[in-house]
Structure formats: structure tokens, C-alpha cells
Design a protein that fits this description.
Elements (H helix, E strand, L loop, with lengths): L14 H16 L13 H36 L16 E7 L4 H15 L13 E6 L10 H9 L21 H7 L3 E9 L3 H7 L8 H8 L11 E5 L20 H7 L3 E3 L2 H5 L11 E4 L8 H4 L9 H15 L7 E7 L2 H6 L3 H24 L4 E6 L3 E2 L19 H5 L5 H14 L3 H16 L6 H8 L7 H13 L8 E2 L3 E5 L10 E4 H11 L4 H9 L63
Parallel strand pairs: 1-7, 1-8, 2-12, 3-4, 3-7, 4-6, 5-6
Antiparallel strand pairs: 2-11, 8-11, 9-10
Bound molecules: 2-acetamido-2-deoxy-beta-D-glucopyranose (2 copies) and zinc ion (ZN) (2 copies).
């Protein structure tokens, strides 16, 4: 497949608008109002005539064009059941679909990472990310229950093509299951895969292969992912973290609530199981893989790329996992009529956003960009046609590539060099600090250690006494990981408005604008989901129908489990729908929230479970 080049040509900015912006900027600096209506009034009547004539002409032409297009469309609609496809034509024949999710990556993440890359690799200003060359459109991310989505509702929009509530794992606002593109692909004969850097039971991967009422039901998600699912096993390849939800609660490193050994059960179901770098390497880049494959390389998250790169012998990178998954799936479908569907997530861009850690984030985005390039390379070289679509579920952190540090009017700048000097994440530094403090109670030694840790891990040599005190105060309302992240962010003059998500539109990328033509421009996130199913010619609503009429009991959700929904039997396998204060539809309204007492930061961040 030839890769298509620049999908959106840059538009020259209008001179007038830049003049106006300059005027407004001056006004901000000087406190003067702008005078937009300058110029002479000579010839007003004449120009008015010209304007009216031009308007009439344009309107007439527009009416004719609309009439012709309408007639054309009506006649096409009669000969095709579905909407016509654009430039590339409706895809036919054997094909592959790779869907990439950059969890929590907003537009500013790209700006920040691009500048970081240029600085650290000595590149000119027009050397951009691979992603930058493949931007196609933007996605509106709100959920059914909020203008700011979470990853669960975000991924449900992709997997099912429907809006649902924050926390929903491929269930609708009425707590009924919706069929997913991965399930439909599997039942249509495609091979399927999920590759992530967080827990494989976390919201994004969960939404493709399981259904539960709340994302926190990760034990049940794990069960469904290995095939305890109304449709049977639908995933052929699993790679990521989250091993703890597959191990019995009697084992070290388990986070399951029960004694079920899902690894043993998966093996009984035919899965080949690998759990470390040695196992990963035994796949030999995918030529030696045996499907179904369960690869769980970390108890919870695979470390941030900034920390992983010094533990490359322990954890595979996202790019390595992506390449191996692609090779495995293309091998497995070599002689079949159908290709494969693969979802690859850069999961921890979001975590770096939650942690407000710009140094961790730029390295996560670069790792994702490499995986994106690897998929493009695969598509170019593979004989089966295919498309790569990539987007984010939402932005995280309210990231800003500027920050005002003082009362004085700020300089216009930020410093990528500060991020370049960090060699580890704030999360890593906080763990190191905690380890040290728990073994060394002496204050002077603690302070010396903290200063050397700041230098070694974060490249910071000018910590203030106040910053050190805050890191060492066991009663500080701000956890050390947040203090570390803030120390880097301030020095780099990078701003954050929240430790949670934000509502800004996110980017849509594709391997080719011809194939992904319907996603050009600004879209609802559900249209991304609709495209995925459409590209593979899948009928996801038929899967929804099957799920909604299935009588299914899973071991953990039957009537004896104490699950409220189990009482009437229907959909008991989705788990209890009555979480704390779960709004499923309609937006909340203002009720003086700003007056609410500040909770303890850290305890409330929910890091590690809810993103
Ligand atoms: C482990 O799971 C069993 C149920 O399978 C439960 O009875 C037991 O209390 C659990 N033990 C722990 C330590 O959570
Ligand atoms: C990065 O570290 C070097 C050496 O420690 C230091 O000289 C330089 O000022 C640092 N740069 C920034 C932007 O902090
Ligand atoms: Zn997310
Ligand atoms: Zn998140």
C-alpha cells in the first residue's frame, strides 16, 4: 500500500487577521482598546452594490449545485443500501484494520513533544512527528453523562459507536450491552488483537472485548477477555500489563477478589501464556507466536517509557509489541479470507497527564509515534490492503505550552530543555524517595538524599528549601509525585489546569485519507466507531441484538454473587449497575462546586484505577 502524504495542506493565514491579532495583543499589553473600524468611507455605496451582486451570484450557484448534488445522491442511495464512500471507494476483499488510541493525548501534547524532539535531536523547526504528517481531522469527545468524558465512555464510542456514560464498558445508558467492532470482526472470521501499556483490564481494551456496568469490575473484565463471554472467546491476541487480575487472591502479586486462577483457565481454553521479556522474545518477532496468545508483562502498568528504556531487558516497548502483534496476526491470517482487527493503545500518555508530568508525557508520545510509524511501515510492506486510524479518547491535564509563574506579565516561552534533563518520571522519583524515607529516618540525610535524587532523576539542581520541605513532610497535602511533577512543569513553564481530563477536541490520524475519507474534518467520537465497523463491513447491531438476548451467567456474577442485577437474571453478567452516584444520561448542572472543601490530593486521584 503506498502511503499517502500530507493530508491537510496548511492554509496561508489571512494577513488581515494577523494584523488584527497584533492589534489585540498590543491592546492587552497597553490597556488600549483596538480600533477595528479605521479606513475611509469613500465609495461605500459602490462597494455595497458590488457586494450585493456577488452575494446574489454565489447564492444562485449554490442553489444549483445543491440541487444537482441532491439529485445525484438520491439516485445513488437507491442503488446502494449504505452511504456512498468517498475518494477511495468502498473497500472490498481481504483487508486489515489497525486502530490506535493515544489515551489522554490532546493537541498540546503534540506541540510539546514536537518541540522536545526537535531540541533533543537537533532538528529544524519543520521536522515534525510522524503523527503530524498524517492528521486527518478532529474528534468531539463528550459522553452521554458529561461534557468531559472518561476513558470508558470514550472507548465505548469507538467500540460500539454509541455515546454512553462515564464508567460504562460497552454498555448503553440503560445498562444493556452493545456489540463491539472487535466482537463483530471475530464472529465474521477476522483475527483480533489488543496491545496496551497499562492493565489489559483497563477501560480502553476492556471496551473492545467485554461488557460491564462499571469500569472498576476488572476481575469480570479479565474473565470475559479470556472467553467467559456470551459470545465465547473473541480476542486472539492479548499483550500488555494487568497480570494481577488474572492471578488467584492466594498468590503474591494478585489483585483479584477471589481465588480463581484465570491464567490456568486461559491455558485450558487453549491460550499460550507468556509473562516476561523471555517469553516475549520467544515469539521471535511474531514468527513463533501461537494463537490464542495471552501476554501479561507487568502486574499492573508497564513502566513509563522514560523509566522502561533502562529496563529494556524486563519489559518490551509499545513499538516492539505492535510489530510482534502485526506479524503474528498477518501470519495467522495468511491463508484465510479475512484479515485482522488490531487495537493498539498508548495507554500511559493519559497517566502522565494525570500526574501532570511533562517529561514522562513527551517520552510516552514519542513511543506512541514510533509505534504509529511501525504500523505505517507494516501497511506499506504487507500485501493485504489495510488502514490505520488513530485518535485519542480525550485530553488529560488541561495541558498548556506556557505558564505564568509570577505577577509580572509573562515572557512568551517555555523550555523543552528542562524536560530533556529529566531521566525518569515523577512517579519513579516518588517511589525511590518513599523507599529511602521508609528506611532512613534522619532528617539531614533525607534532605541530602532528596537533593541528589532530584539531580539524578529529574535533572533539577536548584530546588528551594520550601520544595524540599514539601517533599519530606509526611503530612503534606500534596503527594511527592505531584510535587516532583510540579517542580519540572514550573521550571519548563508548562501549565496544567487539572489532574483529570478536559473536554477539548482531540486529533484523528490515518494512514491514508483515501481509505479513511469519512473521518476528514470534525467528528463526533461515535463516528470514529462507525467508521471502524464500516471499513470492515461489519454489522455491529446484529451483535448487540445477540448480546441483548443472551442468557448468560458468569461464575462471578450469578445470583449467589450478591449482585443486585442478578435478581431478575437479565444482564447479571454486566455486574451491579448501581455504583456510587452513577449518572448515565444528561448533564449535571452547577451547584456551587467551587465552594466545596478540597479533598486530600493523592487519595482522591484514583491513580491506578480510574482514568
Ligand atoms: C480469596 O477469595 C475467596 C473467594 O474465592 C474469599 O473467600 C477469600 O476471602 C479471599 N481471600 C482474600 C485474602 O481476599
Ligand atoms: C540541564 O543540565 C545541565 C547539566 O546539569 C545544565 O547545565 C543545564 O542548565 C540544564 N538545562 C536546563 C534547561 O535545565
Ligand atoms: Zn482515557
Ligand atoms: Zn485518564
Amino acid at each position: 500500500m503506498p502511503r499517502e502524504e500530507p493530508l491537510l495542506a496548511p492554509r496561508p493565514s489571512s494577513e488581515q487577521s494577523s494584523i488584527r491579532n497584533a492589534e489585540e495583543e498590543d491592546a492587552l499589553l497597553t490597556g488600549e482598546r483596538t480600533h477595528r473600524s479605521g479606513g475611509s468611507h469613500r465609495g461605500w455605496g459602490f462597494w455595497r452594490q458590488v457586494g450585493l451582486f456577488a452575494w446574489a451570484l454565489i447564492a444562485t450557484v449554490a442553489v444549483i449545485v445543491i440541487a444537482v448534488v441532491y439529485q445525484h445522491e438520491t439516485s445513488r442511495a437507491q442503488s446502494h443500501e449504505k452511504e456512498p464512500w468517498g475518494p477511495g471507494g468502498r473497500p472490498t476483499g481481504k483487508r486489515n484494520l489497525i486502530f490506535m488510541v493515544s489515551d489522554g493525548m490532546g493537541p498540546t501534547s503534540l506541540t510539546m513533544t514536537r518541540s522536545f524532539k526537535q531540541l533533543t535531536q537537533g532538528l529544524p523547526a519543520d521536522e515534525v512527528l510522524m503523527l503530524d504528517k498524517h492528521i486527518l481531522g478532529t474528534s468531539r469527545t463528550r459522553s452521554s453523562s458529561s461534557l468531559v468524558t472518561d476513558s470508558a465512555a470514550g472507548a465505548t464510542a469507538f467500540s460500539c459507536g454509541f455515546k454512553s456514560y462515564n464508567g460504562a464498558i460497552s454498555v448503553l445508558p440503560d445498562h444493556s450491552p452493545c456489540g463491539t467492532v472487535l466482537e463483530a470482526a471475530s464472529l465474521a472470521g477476522y483475527k483480533t488483537g489488543l496491545v496496551v501499556t497499562t492493565r489489559i483490564t483497563d477501560a480502553t481494551p476492556a471496551c473492545f472485548a467485554s461488557h460491564v456496568n462499571l469500569r472498576q469490575y476488572e476481575d469480570q473484565i479479565a474473565e470475559q477477555e479470556i472467553g467467559e463471554h456470551p459470545l465465547g472467546r473473541v480476542v486472539d491476541l492479548i499483550m500488555g500489563g494487568g497480570r494481577c487480575h488474572f492471578l488467584p487472591n492466594t498468590t503474591d502479586g494478585s489483585c483479584r477478589a477471589d481465588e480463581r486462577d484465570l491464567v490456568a483457565i486461559a491455558k485450558e481454553k487453549g491460550f499460550s501464556y507468556i509473562s516476561d521479556r523471555k517469553g516475549f522474545d520467544s515469539l521471535n518477532g511474531g514468527t513463533e507466536s501461537r494463537l490464542p496468545l495471552l501476554g501479561l508483562f507487568a502486574e499492573k502498568d508497564i513502566p513509563y517509557e522514560i523509566d522502561r528504556r533502562t529496563q529494556n531487558d524486563v519489559y518490551p516497548s509499545l513499538e516492539e509489541m505492535a510489530r510482534t502483534a502485526l506479524k503474528t496476526l498477518s501470519h495467522a491470517t495468511e491463508n484465510s479470507e479475512q484479515g485482522f482487527f488490531l487495537m493498539i493503545e498508548g495507554s500511559r500518555i493519559d497517566h502522565a497527564g494525570h500526574g501532570n508530568d511533562p517529561a514522562a508525557q513527551v517520552n510516552e508520545v514519542l513511543a506512541y509515534d514510533k509505534a504509529f510509524a511501525a504500523v505505517l511501515e507494516f501497511l506499506e510492506e504487507d500485501s493485504t490492503p489495510g488502514v490505520l486510524v488513530a485518535t485519542s479518547d480525550h485530553e488529560t491535564g488541561g495541558l498548556a505550552a506556557a505558564r505564568q509563574l509570577h505577577d509580572a506579565y509573562p515572557d512568551y516561552l517555555w523550555y523543552p530543555g528542562v524536560l530533556a534533563n529529566a531521566s525518569h518520571s515523577s512517579e519513579y522519583a516518588a517511589n525511590e524517595l518513599q523507599d529511602y524515607l521508609s528506611q532512613n529516618p534522619e532528617k539531614p540525610a533525607q534532605e541530602t538524599y532528596t537533593r541528589s535524587l532530584l539531580k539524578k532523576a529529574l535533572g533539577i539542581e536548584d530546588a528551594t528549601q520550601q520544595e524540599i520541605d514539601s517533599l519530606l513532610d509526611p503530612n503534606s497535602p500534596i503527594i511527592p509525585a505531584y510535587v516532583f511533577a510540579d517542580m519540572i512543569s514550573r521550571r519548563a513553564q508548562i501549565g496544567w489546569s487539572t489532574h483529570g481530563h478536559s473536554g477539548v477536541d482531540v486529533n484523528i490520524y490515518a494512514s491514508s485519507s483515501k481509505d479513511a475519507w469519512p473521518l476528514q474534518g470534525n467528528h463526533e467520537n461515535t463516528e470514529v466507531g462507525a467508521f471502524l465497523a464500516d471499513y470492515l463491513g461489519l454489522d455491529v447491531s446484529a451483535i448487540t441484538n445477540r448480546l441483548q438476548h443472551s442468557e448468560y451467567w458468569s461464575a462471578a456474577s450469578g445470583p449467589e454473587s450478591g449482585n443486585v442485577a442478578a435478581e431478575d437474571g437479565k444482564f447479571s453478567w454486566l455486574g451491579n449497575p448501581f455504583g456510587d452516584d452513577v449518572r448515565t444520561d444528561g448533564l449535571d448542572t452547577y451547584h456551587g462546586d467551587f465552594k466545596r472543601k478540597r479533598g486530600l490530593v493523592g487519595d482522591e486521584c484514583g491513580c491506578g484505577s480510574v482514568h
